[in-house]
Each structure stands twice: as structure tokens, then as C-alpha cells.
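Q: what does this look like with MRU bound?
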Amino acid sequence: MVPRRSSIESPVARDPIPPTVAWRAGRVRLIDQRALPIRLRYVSCATAAELVAAIRDLVVRGAPALGVCGAFGVALAARASSSEHTVFAAAARVADARPTAVNLAWGVDRALAAYRAGGAGGALACARELAAVDVAGNRRLGALGATLLPDGARVLTHCNAGSLACVGYGTALGVIRAHHEAGRGPSVWVDETRPVGQGARLTAWELDRLAIPYRVIVDAAAASLFAAGEVDAVVVGADRIAANGDVANKIGTYGVAVLARAHRVPFYVAAPVSTIDPATASGAEIVIEQRRADEITLAHGVRTAPRRAEVWNPAFDVTPARLVSALVTDAGVVPKPTGARLRPLLALR
Ligand code: MRU
């Protein structure tokens, strides 16, 4: 069951983009990303099952946001039941809601450890802390990443790795935002990001609110832009980074990385250390989510492919570490990431 919708935009929000995930009166309040950019509205989840439905339905998406949702899912389950068995079972369902972003299971595990030590209150305190840490970490990451970009940088990004993919500020968009806030005049090429359009719908909406100049392109236009010398850097987010530095991110990212290498443009990945998965040795082990055929065969509910068209719709692809110029994290910048260079970060996860 998809959880019920609640109130509209808060008039007191100081950031032009309200928090993606927040705890409000015993519920988890999410920006309903399905409605953007047309409407800013919220969905309120009272149970872990409602949160699972919201995650599956892309009400909320983006690896860091999913990590915090994972923790809040445990908090909801712990408030609802005094049975440890029931709480663990609900936590497992939250962790399994989507397979690729490692942050989801990371957030669940962190909150379960807090639940074991401090019960329902411990789980909730943990979730709230992870939410606050997300925003602070993204600001840090953004400031570090901005130093890698030249003044007036024309930055290409793919998918949405902004405030909406986190609790606030953003990872890849956090880098661009920090550059903008430092008065260094970035502009952004926004891949629309087929098939679900997180770039055209969400990244463009955020850049609009932040008054950062941008232009939306179809994914297939990126090659021509590189060829014309119109891209100074690529900055993207990540859903899971393997221990050897391979990066899973939204489908199409690998193609952008190949283009960047062919045109000698730096390709940066921005992500918190919670996105690095020590249990996944290389990109070959990352489970890639397959999504519904109608994301491709329908456009705005109208059929655009034959009814019997067969479809392959992976949500993510893997960019090999050798194509990554640097990984920008909340704990520092890792140039040309390798297993040995990532190892010290794993202790900070
Ligand atoms: O399928 P989604 O929308 O959950 O995909 C996640 C993403 O938004 C991206 O892959 C993103 O670039 C990394 S998460 C900051």
C-alpha cells in the first residue's frame, strides 16, 4: 500500500530545497519525488511497510537518502512492536526494498545496532543522527570537490545526486553548489537521464531553485558536447562503490565516463564513505536492479512502443575505477581510486 499524502511546502524552510527525509510527529516525512517538478508535496509514512512501498515506488530515491530511510524504517518498526523478532523481520524487508544502493542496508544495520543497545529510542536517535550527518558530510564533500573545478566550470552531470538524493545539499550537485556559493560561476549540462528522467525532472528543479545556470540535454547529445569542447568536468554520484573503486551509478554513467576519457575531461565521482562497500570486491559483483518495461514503453502514460516489445531496463551500470579521475568523499578526496587507496576510508563508514 502506498502511504498517504500529507501537507504541502513549509513556508519557513531556509534552504531553498527542504529536507528530503524528516521525522515529523512519529512519522517519516518524504518529499514525493514522483510529483516533481510540477508539485512539491509530501508523503508521510507511519509504518515500516509504508516506507518500503515508498522506496519501491521511487517516492524517495538516491543512495544517501535511502541510507537514512533504512534507519528510520528500523525506528518505525521498533516503535510498533516489542518483539525483537518482528523488528528484525521488518528491518530485513526495508533493506531488501531496492538492491543496488548499498547505503540502504548500511542505514538499516546502523539502526539495528543502536536498537540492540538502546531499544526503540536508540534506533530513532541513530536515524536522526544519520540524517544530520548526511547534510554536514555533503557540505564538507561539496567544498572539497569544488576545489577541483576551474572558475566558470561547465560541468556535466547525470541523474540526480542533489539534495533530493540525500537528506540535503547533495553529493555531485553539492560539489557544484559549493562552487556556485563560492562565487565561481559554474554552469551545468544536465543529462535528462532516461528512462525515468531524474536529470530533467529533479536535477533541473534543484538547479532552478538554487539559481545555478543549467541546460537540459538528451543523454545522446553528450557526445557532441564533448566533441565541441563544451564540457570542463563531469561530476556524478554513486549508488555503490566496490572495494576496488568500481562505481555503480544510474544507467548511462559508464558511457559518460568513456566519453570523458576519450576527450581528456576529468570524471569525478562524489559520494559519502557509506557508499563504499567493503563486501563487494569489484563492480562485477554489484547487483543491478532491473526495472519495469513500461518505464520505456510508455511516455507519460502513453504507449510509445509496440505492446509486445521486449525490454531490457537496468537501472544502473558500472564504471570501472580506471575511468575515475577522483572520488570526492566526506572524508577526503581520493585521486584515481584503487583498493589500496580506499581501504583507509572503510574504517570511517
Ligand atoms: O534509481 P535512483 O533514482 O534511486 O538512482 C539513484 C540515483 O539517483 C543515482 O544513481 C545517483 O546518481 C546516485 S545517488 C546520489
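The domain at 140-346 is CATH 3.40.50.10470 (Rossmann fold). The chain has two domains: 4-136, 140-346.
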